[in-house]
Design goal:
single chain; about 160 residues; alpha/beta; Rossmann fold; 7 helices; about 45% helix; globular; disordered N terminus
Length: about 160
């Protein structure tokens, strides 16, 4: 009788039925990594499979990774205050691809440099993001959104579940 290796056991534990394949990324102008590592660790602790693209990710790199790996969700995080501009460029690039039309994409963090109280939500939603998480309520709202997703769930289904 053979037993699975420790690695095989941990891989099996991660591959739960509701485990999502998630790409975590930042925007081209943001060199911070602590936020990405934090998100990766939290999402993995929740049982999801995470690909962390790191900091300073240009839209073409995000696009090629999404086409290659077909994730269930893309999470864009920015803490330098340029997420509004750079994030919009990235999501527009993804939305140009028919194959990624159903891919849920969200953004959160410090998204603007104008200070608190500046509502960027509508602009980012119009650019193609499915949800925007900013300020003190960002993480709890993100976790609420995350609970609405299932592997293979297309964007329209995810939005309908989240907004109702």
């Amino acid at each position: 009788m053979t037993y699975p290796s420790v690695l095989e056991v941990s891989e099996i534990a991660v591959r739960k039925a509701d485990s999502l394949a998630i790409v975590v990324t930042s925007v081209a102008s943001d060199a911070h990594t602590w936020n990405l590592v934090y998100l990766q660790l939290v999402l993995e602790e929740l049982g999801h499979q995470v690909t962390n693209l790191g900091c300073c990710v240009v839209p073409s790199l995000l696009l090629s990774e999404c086409l290659r790996s077909a994730p269930d969700l893309v999470v864009v995080s920015s803490v330098n205050g340029h997420g509004q501009v750079d994030g919009a460029q990235s999501v527009r690039r993804l939305r140009e691809q028919e194959e990624l039309a159903g891919l849920p994409v969200v953004i959160g963090g410090q998204l603007g440099i104008a200070g608190p109280g500046q509502d960027r939500r509508e602009e980012l939603l119009c650019a193609g993001f499915d949800a925007v998480f900013e300020g003190n309520a960002g993480m709890p709202a993100f976790f609420g959104f995350l609970q609405t997703l299932r592997p293979g769930l297309v964007r329209t289904e995810a939005l309908a579940r989240y907004r109702h």
